[in-house]
Amino acid sequence: SGTLFEAETGTLSSGGTFDSNHLGFTGTGFANPANAVGAYVQIPVTATTAGTKTLSFRYSDGTTAARPATITVNGTSRGTLNFPVTANWDTWSTATISVPLNAGANTVRVTGTVADGPANIDSVTVSQ
Ligand code: GCU
Q1: What interface predicted TM-score (ipTM) does this complex get?
Q2: What's the gap in Å between 128 CA and the centre of ligand 1?
Q3: I need a labelling partner for 1 at 20 to 30 A (CA). Which of 78, 94, 95, 101 fits?
């Protein structure tokens, strides 16, 4: 099991918006980060204990090109995660990566590595 954190509780780099114009999101919307290399959404998460946790990002990419992104936790890069295309912008998939978290508060940043920026991000679920 895990704990879900909505992307719309986070912050966006310049040009990003929190939107609700596609179907199937949870909460009040989703993050639409800017279309640029280096564009990001940063989401605050908590962990009940310190250790290696799985982050499961719920995302959408209705284009024909994947949107890989660097996953940075508390300021340290933990690698590049691929976000493959989904059928359309109303279809959500998950991309997962294991990262070390602190007990309590952590920040998770998804930073686009391609000119299209990151995928639309609905939430991140943290294994506990
Ligand atoms: C479309 C889509 C957005 C998406 C954007 C993109 O404009 O409606 O939700 O974020 O494409 O390519 O990133």
Answers
A1: 0.98
A2: 32
A3: 78
With a Cβ cut-off of 6 Å, ligand 1 is lined by 19, 22, 32, 35, 63, 89, 116, 120
pTM of this prediction? 0.98
Residue nearest to atom 2 of ligand 1 (CA): 89
Q: Name the 3-class secondary structure at 9.
A: helix
Residue with tokens 């990566």: 97
* Residue 94 to residue 86: CA distance in whole angstroms: 10
| pLDDT tens by residue, the chain, 128 residues | 799 999 999 999 999 999 999 999 999 999 999 999 999 999 999 999 999 999 999 999 999 999 999 999 999 999 999 999 999 999 999 999 999 999 999 999 999 999 999 999 999 999 99
Determine contact, residues 70/106, Cβ cutoff 8 Å.
no
Cα(89) to ligand 1 centroid in Å equals 8
